[in-house]
Write a structure and sequence with these properties.
This protein is mainly alpha-helical. It has eight helices and no strands. The radius of gyration is 15 Å and the shape is elongated.
């Protein structure tokens, strides 16, 4: 059995805005977007991906939102791992060697990410 590749989300600015509206209803999208734009450089590949990861991890909590933006600026890998590869990151080094366990984790992480992204 071959190990599954970990999917990498392709995220648009529109998806980030939709996520902001869903996660922070009633708040100023412009203000939130200004805060989110503190991470990354416009046009930089992957910027929106990380911004959406910040939203996923914040779960509608403004304080956590700010913390995750800061975390992304300090070590983006931590934010990506927590948002996109939560189950995979729980595997111990010996578990990660077991392809079936790794594949289940990759599939679970992708399913969770997609379900969160598509939530209304």
């Amino acid at each position: 059995m071959k190990s599954l590749p970990q999917p990498v989300p392709q995220v648009s600015r529109e998806e980030v805005v939709r996520g902001l509206k869903r996660e922070f209803p009633g708040e100023s999208i412009e203000v939130l977007m200004t805060e989110l734009d503190e991470y990354g450089i416009p046009g930089n590949p992957g910027r929106e991906r990380v911004q959406l990861d910040v939203l996923k991890l914040a779960r509608g909590n403004r304080e956590k939102f700010r913390e995750m933006i800061q975390e992304a600026k300090e070590d983006v890998r931590e934010v990506i791992a927590a948002a996109e590869y939560r189950e995979y990151m729980k595997l111990s080094p010996t578990d990660a060697l077991v392809i079936e366990a790794a594949n289940r984790a990759v599939e679970a992480d992708w399913r969770e990410y997609q379900e969160w992204l598509q939530r209304k």
